[in-house]
Amino acid sequence: MHFFRWLGVGVILCCGIFSGLFFAAFERRRLEQAEGFLSLLRLIRLQIDCFSAPVSRILAECDKSVLAACGIASPKTDFKALLRDTKLYLSEEMCRLLTDFAGRLGGSYREEQLRCCEYYLARLAPYCDTLRAELPKRERMALFLPPALSVALILLLL
Questions:
Q1: What distance lies between CA 39 and its chain's CA centroid?
Q2: What is the DSSP string of 66-106?
Q3: Mean pLDDT taken over the chain
Q4: Are 64 and 36 in contact (CB under 8 A)?
Q5: How many C-beta atoms lie closer than 10 Å to residue 73's C-beta?
Q6: Contact predicate 8/138, CB 8 Å
Q7: What's the rounded Cα separation, in Å, for the pair 5 and 50?
Q8: Residue 107 dihedral angles phi and psi, to the nearest 5°
Q9: If you average pLDDT over residues 38-46, what whole number do you get?
Q10: Half-sphere exposure of 115 (CA within 13 A, CB side)
């Protein structure tokens, strides 16, 4: 009977530690994805500005590392399809901004697309800066809080 009690304590403690590690990894992935989409928007803007390239060609020829940072497995030719097939870890506001950007991209003249890219880059950059600044605090919280809660639960059960 005593063995099962200590086994339960070990399981609860391991669950707390692993959930903290997974939550910290989620926070890092969230920042990586936000910065990846910011890089993708910068790349799209650069390609439109320098080469007047269509969005379908930009996305098809995009660097795989930029797409991987966004969490995109396979390149698409449409930004809406790209967002639809990607698991987003971002906040609701950032997802809404990306969806709005996808709706406005590619359906107008070059100058209008450049203004659209500038507008959404200016709106998304502060979110990335905020996530980058808050990442150390959120990682510490993620690594401390779940194990602390599991220790509190163990103390309550003993």
A1: 12
A2: HHHHHT-SS--S-HHHHHHTS---S-HHHHHHHHHHHHHTT
A3: 93
A4: no
A5: 10
A6: no
A7: 67
A8: -110, 20
A9: 95
A10: 6
CA distance 97 to 101: 6
pLDDT in the model for residue 22: 97
The neighbour count for residue 93, using CB atoms within 10 Å, is 11
Nearest Cα neighbor of 83 from 126, 116, 52, 40 is 40
- Mean of pLDDT values over 23-34: 96
- The secondary structure of 42-65 as a DSSP string is HHHHHHHHHH---HHHHHHT--HH
Token readout for 112 is: 């209008």
pTM of the entire predicted model: 0.91
